[in-house]
Structure formats: structure tokens, C-alpha cells
Amino acid sequence: VQLTDLHASRLLEAPWIGAVVKKTNALNPDLIVITGDLVDGTTAARAADVQPLQALRARYGVYAIPGNHEYYAEYQRWLPAFEHLGLRLLLNEHVTLTPDGQRLVLAGVTDRMAAAYAQPLPDVQQALAGVPPTDPVILLSHRPTGAALNARAGAGLQLSGHTHGGQILGPHLLTQWANEGYVSGLYQVGGMTLYVSNGTGLWPGFPIRLGRPSEITQIVLRSPAKAAPQ
Questions:
Q1: Contacts of 94 (CB under 8 A, 6+ apart)
Q2: Pairing mode, strands 104-108 and 88-89
Q3: pTM of structure
Q4: What's the angle, vertex CA 30, arms to CA 53 and CA 56, rounded to 5?
């Protein structure tokens, strides 16, 4: 299950986050990933609102990456706070999972907003360093931009957010233009599949959706020999 752009804030507080957690757990996921923009605000202001994330449960763990909004307020404090909630952060690194004895690489990169805060820039090569070329790779990248580079680096599936699906049907085309043509749903980029979620929450600075619904995304992976991916 993919969650993204939760944007815990004065608009989306602990009860709303708790409802998202309950719906997510009800899907009985093997793996949960959160692709950035979890919070809007400082650790002091938002700690109670993200607390429900500690209840997320998945057989192979709960993983997260930062989005651009994590850098705006206390990035360095949020990292240990997220880890304390049981979210394993992937910061230009990867883990190898073994579902049913098969190898599956899950990698994550930081966000390019890091440049403004003297933090490590996204580096897909570093994230995939040492990964055997035969291992299937899921890459978590907050922004869908750079998908072609990530495909060439060896990612088979990229999961992103950031766009909120454009928020409003029609003007969403501007968001699409600003993100290399990627705004919502499935895309084929070389030999890689890219999925761009509409996002689970909303930025409180522009809390509007018209024709671009939010989502908790259930993703089913299947072997190409058995069936096409969903």
C-alpha cells in the first residue's frame, strides 16, 4: 500500500491520520510505503498528529522517504521522530526484502529541496549501489520527475506523489507540464513502470480537490510469467 502527501497539519490532524491508518491496515498489506510530505509544521506542533502512524502494520515493514515539505520545518528533527514511529527511512539507500523466499529491493531517495538546506541531494546511483542487476527494484521518489534516469539506473517500478493529481481537473495540465508530463496514474518510462499517486491528504495552503480524488493506493505485484501487473 502506498500513502503519500499526508500533510499532517492544523487542517488534517490526528483523527484524520488515524482514519487513514485504520483504512490502510484493513487492507492487510504485505508492505507499506509513504512517499513524502508527511507533515507541515514543526515536531512540537505536529507530533501528536503523526502519532497514529505508529499503528501502521505490514508483514515486511513500513518505509518512508522525505518530500519537499519535510525540509521546510526541522528536517533533522523529523528524521528521528519518524524512526521512533516505526517508519524506516530510505535516504539514498535500499533494503532487500525476501517475500516468499524471493528477493525484492526497495530503494528510496531524498528530495531535491535538500539543496536549499545543505542536505544530501537525491542520488539513485547511491540508493542502488550493490544491487544485483537481476533483482527487481521498487524505487520511492517523492517527485515523478527524473523517472527516465531512474529507469536507466535499474528501477522496475517507481512510486511517487507530490502532484496531488493536479488538484483540479483542467488546471491539472499545468501541474503535468511542471512535472515532465507526469501527474496522475500509470506511465511506462522505458522499461520501468511509474505510478504517480493523487496523494492521500492536501497541503493546507491550497486545500482544494475538484475531479482529482485523494487515494490510499493498493498495489498488487505479480510475476510477468503469471500475469500483467495491476
A1: 105, 106, 107, 108, 127, 128, 131, 137
A2: unpaired
A3: 0.94
A4: 10
